[in-house]
């Protein structure tokens, strides 16, 4: 039933949602958001970036305010009644029914759409209609669900928005994470200043990637990305847990499954400039597989020579860049 409601509401809200929103929308995704932030940073006169992190976003949505937003667009009483039931349903934990006063309930099919509707009104439209006309320079918002980045031409504009943003969010029951919400110098000027001072320019994280100021081989300003250290460690930990659990299974089956995991990792993280991180993951998977295959030999050591022979027969998928350049290199 939720899927039917989502299929009904999506075409309606797609007419309203702005281009800055990329999460859980038809034909849009994380890769397109990353392409867009690269283009904005390289082709526009950006001097600083504001990372936004909303604490427990899906659990903090104020239901009555969400329903007011929806009622302003949807007039069908039966659909509105269904949505109210969806967002007020509880969860069962250890046989107990738990109810809360806020939030849409993560895991529901309709949850991502409702979350997009809420931030569309709270953040996207507010930036477009009220904030941009009051700023001195340009500002670009790129949002994927509750992960968002604001790119500013002038730092004074960024500081103004950062001062008023907590008040705007508090009005709708949302709170910015005090430590993860950061304003960093980023862009051509930041790279030049860091070069003069002999330091490294600041970086910021978005959608699993650390973004860094850099120069192309021709000396033009560009942005390089690499897998966030936290994400890389988490991915390798999951592979290690899997290898430990399935170490006694058939080697052919283990190889096929590990290659599927590698392929999925490369498909998401295989962006240009990120080859070194892909190779780190590949090497980590190699070492982890050897470790747990060696635990089933009952006293016989699995040497690197023997493991090399095994890899020759059962090769692991090597690192590869899966995403093309998005034309992000600046001409200056």
What does this structure look like?
This protein has 332 residues and is α+β, with helices and mostly antiparallel strands. 50% of the residues lie in helices and 14% in strands. The protein contains 12 helices and 9 strands. Strand 8 and strand 9 form a beta hairpin. The longest helix has 21 residues. The mean pLDDT is 92.
Summarize the helices and strands and which ones pair or pack.
Blueprint: H1 2-14, H2 30-43, E1 48-53, H3 57-60, H4 63-71, H5 77-88, E2 91-93, E3 96-98, H6 111-131, E4 139-144, E5 147-152, H7 155-170, E6 182-185, H8 188-197, E7 204-206, E8 209-215, E9 221-227, H9 229-245, H10 251-269, H11 275-294, H12 304-313
Antiparallel strand pairs: 1-5, 1-6, 2-3, 4-5, 7-8, 8-9
Helix pairs in contact: 4-5, 4-6, 9-11, 10-11
Compact description:
With 332 residues, this protein is α+β, with helices and mostly antiparallel strands. The chain contains 12 helices and 9 strands.
Number of strands: 9
Helix tally?
Answer: 12
Portion in beta strands = 5-15%
Taking the sheet with the most strands, its summary is: 4 strands, antiparallel
Entry keywords:
alpha+beta; 332 residues; three-stranded antiparallel beta sheet; globular
């Amino acid at each position: 039933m939720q899927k039917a409601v989502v299929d009904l509401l999506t075409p309606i809200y797609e007419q309203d949602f702005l281009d800055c929103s990329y999460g859980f929308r038809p034909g849009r995704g994380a890769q397109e958001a990353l392409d867009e932030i690269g283009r904005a940073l390289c082709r526009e006169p950006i001097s600083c970036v504001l990372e936004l992190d909303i604490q427990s976003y899906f659990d903090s949505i104020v239901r009555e305010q969400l329903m007011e937003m929806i009622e302003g667009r949807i007039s069908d009483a039966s659909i509105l009644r269904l949505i109210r039931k969806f967002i007020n349903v509880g969860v069962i934990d250890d046989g107990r029914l738990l109810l809360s006063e806020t939030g849409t309930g993560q895991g529901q099919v309709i949850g991502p759409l409702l979350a997009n509707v809420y931030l569309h009104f709270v953040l996207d439209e507010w930036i477009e209609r009220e904030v941009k006309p009051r700023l001195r320079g340009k500002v670009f918002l790129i949002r994927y669900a509750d992960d968002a980045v604001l790119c500013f031409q002038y730092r004074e504009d960024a500081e103004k928005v950062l001062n008023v943003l907590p008040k705007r969010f508090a009005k709708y029951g949302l709170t910015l994470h005090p430590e993860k919400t950061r304003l960093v110098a980023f862009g051509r000027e930041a790279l030049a200043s860091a070069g003069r001072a002999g330091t490294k320019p600041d970086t910021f994280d978005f959608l699993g990637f650390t973004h860094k100021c850099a120069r192309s081989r021709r000396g033009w300003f560009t942005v390089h990305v690499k897998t966030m250290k936290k994400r890389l460690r988490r991915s390798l930990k999951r592979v290690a847990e899997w290898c430990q659990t399935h170490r006694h299974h058939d080697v052919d089956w283990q190889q096929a499954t590990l290659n599927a995991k590698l392929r999925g990792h490369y498909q998401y993280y295989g962006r240009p400039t990120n080859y070194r991180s892909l190779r780190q993951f590949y090497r980590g998977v190699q070492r982890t597989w050897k470790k747990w295959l060696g635990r089933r030999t009952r006293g016989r050591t699995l040497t690197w020579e023997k493991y090399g022979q095994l890899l020759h027969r059962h090769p692991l998928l090597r690192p590869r860049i899966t995403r093309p350049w998005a034309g992000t290199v600046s001409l200056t």
